[in-house]
UniProtKB/TrEMBL annotation:
The lineage of its organism: Bacteria, Bacillati, Bacillota, Bacilli, Bacillales. InterPro entries: Rib_uL2_dom2, Ribosomal_eL14_KOW, Translation_prot_SH3-like_sf. It comes from the Bacteria. It comes from Paenibacillus polymyxa (Bacillus polymyxa). This is RNA polymerase alpha subunit-like ribosomal protein. One of its GO terms (cellular component) is ribosome. The keyword Ribonucleoprotein applies. Keywords: Ribonucleoprotein, Ribosomal protein.
Amino acid sequence: MNQQGNLQIGQLVKILKGRGAGQIAVVVSIADSRFVYIADGDKRKFDQAKKKNVLHLVPQPKISSEIVNSLNESGRVTNGKLRHAVKTFLESSEYQAEEKGD
């Protein structure tokens, strides 16, 4: 199976295609093997999660345990938690290193 096929809930992804290209979002649910729903808590709220083809996303090496736990417990996650996960990731060294590599 290709790398995109194994996205996990709570995983951060970089959007390659569409209006949000270049932005970071969080996988909030998995529709099937080809599509996932993503949200960032800011422009794309949890209740309006965007259905994206996994081929248009680049999985990042970070999975937010906070979001996973929240979804497991209540089936939803606050937009604040989504924003926090994205912000923390953007400030982390993993993302900075990738950007400098271009």
